[in-house]
Amino acid sequence: MRTQGVSFSIARHAAWAPGLDTPQAWRDWARAPFAIAGADEPGVRMMAPMLRRRAGALGKMALEVAYQCLEQRADVPTVFCSRHGEVLRAVELLGCLARGEPLSPTAFSMAVHNANAGLFSIARADRANHIALAAGASSIEHAVIEACGLLADGAPMVLLVASDCPLPAPFGRFEDCAEQPHAWAWLMVAAGAAPITLTWSARAAPAGPDDAAAAAPAQPGGLDVLRFQLGDAARLERGAGARLWHWAKHA
After folding, report:
1. What's the pTM value of the predicted model, to 2 decimals?
2. Which position among 44, 63, 102, 221 has the lowest Cβ density within 10 Å, counted as fewest Cβ atoms?
3. Cβ(92)–Cβ(209) below 8 Å
4. Using one digit for the tens of pLDDT, what is the confidence trace for 8-19?
């Protein structure tokens, strides 16, 4: 049975990925998606260089869209979500431990899941509430539910930042979708003009390996949801684990 779900509107949005750094490029991608690849990084010019150099590729993408979307607004709660987070830094640190090498304090501090949310807060001297979460293949949906909870608690707007990168080699065999580097941000407000609703229901477990393979998403949930937001489709249904997520846009 479906729940009542949550609803919201998007006041502003921004997205960045290697080779996709303009609104028109993203609209073109939404009409005809292709695999995103590359090692380019955004400039994050709104952040002081001393802080900016602490961020890795994933962090710079997340920070770039956060700045673009929030601009000079202050005291806005933020929800940063990433399924894998700074896993590349974590693997590098584990490699240092295995080789008996000293760990970099900076690398260690930036490997935790809330590192980029904290860096954004420090750079802006903004004490607004910030949350960092990961919820597997349903990370985007749980981040939206968290953001809608903050709106329901009285926040006029909430910044949602989603970002992910391909897994490093040691974990590549665990990928269950075509992981691609990307980040996007929504400035969410209470449902008003052109609202989006998110509801969910139970999902039957795959009957066998063939069914599980057929049900596996071709691209990350973050890109599925971004394409839905940018495109013309009024509905999106995503399966993840034991849940079906039902997205809908309303005029």
Report:
1. 0.91
2. 102
3. no
4. 999 999 999 999
